[in-house]
Amino acid sequence: MTVKPTENTPSAPAVGGLPAREAALDIITAALEKRSGLDEALARPGLGALAPRDRAFARLLAMTVLRQLGALDKILDSRLRKPPPETVKTLLRLGLAQILWLGTPAFAAVSTTLALAETRKDGRPFKALINGVLRGLVRDPAPEPRPEDLAPDWLLARWSATYGRGPALQIAAMIAQEPATDLTLRDASTAPDLIAALSTEPGEASEIEAEPDAPAPVPSTATLLDGGSIRVHRRGDVAEWPGFVQGQWWVQDAAAAIPARLFDLKPGDTVLDLCAAPGGKTLQLAASGAKVTALDRSEARLKRLGANLARTGLNAEVVTAEAVAWGDERPFDAILIDAPCSATGTFRRQPDVLWAARPADIATLAALQSKLLDAAARRLKPGGTLIYCVCSLEHEEGEAQARAFLRRRPDFATVPITAGEGGAPAASVIDRGWLRILPHHIEGGLDGFFIARFRRAD
Ligand SMILES: C[S@@+](CC[C@H](N)C(=O)[O-])C[C@H]1O[C@@H](n2cnc3c(N)ncnc32)[C@H](O)[C@@H]1O
Predict the structure, then answer these.
(1) What's the CATH fold of domain 18-143?
(2) How many CB atoms lie within 10 A of CB 29?
(3) S-S: 20 plus which of 34, 58, 329, 336, CB 3.0-4.6 Å?
């Protein structure tokens, strides 16, 4: 089977659209250059200055290339005699992604890619090569990409070793899928009204204006997930969605919302959120009525946490500090550690993490995670609950971490998490009562996470 353009995707601007394509090239370059490059590029004023239609197309194009990067590179490598400079490779990725997945007519994808190459001094000398490779792929399409093409080989090998080949391929297949947006509600009783307000009729939903021959825009839909998150299929700026300004909800993946729901907090209990920013879990804890201390070492990320608290009208004590060295001796009834990690479980929204991750980083992060667990254990009251989680698919940051912690601290024991608790998918519960959430564990997907709950002996 060969690769054909997908149906039911918004049509790419067939002519013009150069600013959108330039922005997409910049986003991809930034995302592949350094960790956090994608977030920074998406927040740049230049992108915000584009017309809404161009901005939406730039994001769609950049995210499509990043989600399909492994597949695109395998196809391009098979047609190139030697690796071209990185900019030229990204120009080819952009052209091919439009042909294969965005419904851009082939002639328009080729000509706009050549126009884009003309704007770059490192692209201009390679126009003949770009033209030849893209036209060659139109004439003689490549075979359909397989799930194993989507992940870096070393990560796929790790996932196969940890979970088995079948689940590893199921994980990899999720990389290409555009995720819906999940919302966590400040007050669960508002769910029915919000679901109604977030669901629209056909024609109201698409931010990218349809081309005359484009498929009809898809209506936006909102559904309630187990655990209480609302899943919204809708594009566009979330700040314009119903309930945002009123602080009725915040964006948080369905998996990321589970850990904070696993405490049994009573009003007035003290909770330390040890790696808190930008604050999705802090907001959940504060909404439960607990007295929350939100600590993080990043001033910039804590600013976002402060803005989230202000918008939702929730309260927390905010502390800028390094968690291990923090001098405050207060003990807490409950502690959440959402530890810094390789973040390989977040590839549905941050596909660049797969290409930024390095094996050595996993070992460095695992060492920090151990220190954070020990620092948290010292600060927990006897009888208190400690929840440890990471948005990583890597065993060293999850199961191995929890096992080593229990060996170091025999005064802590696992409190098993049961299927359905806090929205825990049944497929994610593993033998010790920990959660190993894989991205395909619910329909439509969720982030990969490891979650363990411990109790300190009285
Ligand atoms: C996975 S993120 C936390 C996400 C957050 N819990 C949420 O739900 O929005 C990890 C956080 O740990 C912080 N961090 C990393 N190392 C730290 C340290 N040694 N002490 C305190 N915070 C740290 C990072 O700045 C980052 O904000």
Answers:
(1) N-utilizing Substance Protein B Homolog; Chain A (1.10.940)
(2) 15
(3) 58
